[in-house]
Each structure stands twice: as structure tokens, then as C-alpha cells.
Amino acid sequence: LIIVSLIGVLLFTIISNVASSNDVVVSTICPKTSNPPFCSSVLKFAGTTDLKGLAVYTLNLAHTNARKSLTLAKSIATTTTNPQLKQRYSSCAESYDEAAGDIENAQKDLALGDFNAVNIVTSGAMTEIDDCQDKFAQPPKDTSLLKNGKTLNDICSIILVISNLL
Question: Where in the numbering of this chain does the Pectinesterase inhibitor domain appear (predicted)?
């Protein structure tokens, strides 16, 4: 009975420490991002509180998001009948392709321990995303990619904060 009680106390202590260290990480990183509530929801599923592990997690998430956005932009560019929208989506496909490449470079830079380069190329990805978003500021408007761009920028904002802390 004493052993069972000790094991229970030990497990409770471990779980409490993991939860509190996750809270510390979130409270350190998320207020500095462009969208703190989004940051909190993303980081709670990271499965780690290690900064480098969080960088790997968010870069993987950003890369997946950029690739999905690229696929969507290409698909809409192919199927839309509006020539102006076709041009915008084709241009956005190029932007998302560049953003995905920037994120791949950030992943390589992270593996090499070049955290400043992670920051620089992630900023480059954000510029590419903004270039696409800006194309839809004027009519005809189509919001199919706008939500994707906002999400990707929010993920990149988390990466910037983490890379500055590394």
C-alpha cells in the first residue's frame, strides 16, 4: 500500500511538472507572437517544451501548411475562369513554393544550429506569404487562400520568437 501511494505521488508530481513547464514555455513565447491564442493552441500539442524541439515542430507544421497552400493555389489557378484570379493564384502558387523552400532552408539551418539564419529565412517566407495576401486586397476578391496565409504567418511568427530564444 505504501509503494502504491508513493508511485501515485510520484506520477502526480511528474505530470504537474510537465504541465507547469509547458505553461512556462507558452507564457514565454506566445505573448511575443502575432496571435497569442493561436500560439497557445499550437504549442500545447507539440509534445515537448524544449525550444529546439518546438522549433522542429513548428517548422514541420509550417512546411506542411505551405505545401497545402501551394497545392490549393495551383488547383484554383487551373480551375478558375476569371483571368485576373487565374493570374493571382498562379502568382500565389509561386509565392507559396518560395515560402516552402524558405521553410526547408530554415529546417536545414536549425539542424546546423544557425538560429539567426532560421530567423532570416522564416522572415523571407512571411514576405512571400504577404505578397500573395496583397494580391487579394483589390477586387475581384477570393478568400480561399487568405485563411491559409494568415495561419502560415501565425506559425512563422511562433518560429521567429523561438529562434530568437535559441
Answer: 21-162
Asked if the model's pLDDT at residue 12 lies above 60, the reply is no
Q: How far apart are CA 164 and CA 64, in angstroms?
A: 22
Would you say 158 and 58 are in contact if contact means Cβ atoms under 8 Å apart? Answer: yes
Q: What letter would DSSP give residue 49?
A: -
Cα separation, 39 vs 77, whole angstroms: 31
Residues in the chain: 166
The gap between the terminal CA atoms of the chain, to the nearest Å, is 45
- pLDDT, position 81: 93
Q: Which CATH architecture has domain 2-165?
A: Up-down Bundle (1.20)
Predicted structure pTM score: 0.86
Would you list the domain boundaries of the chain? 2-165
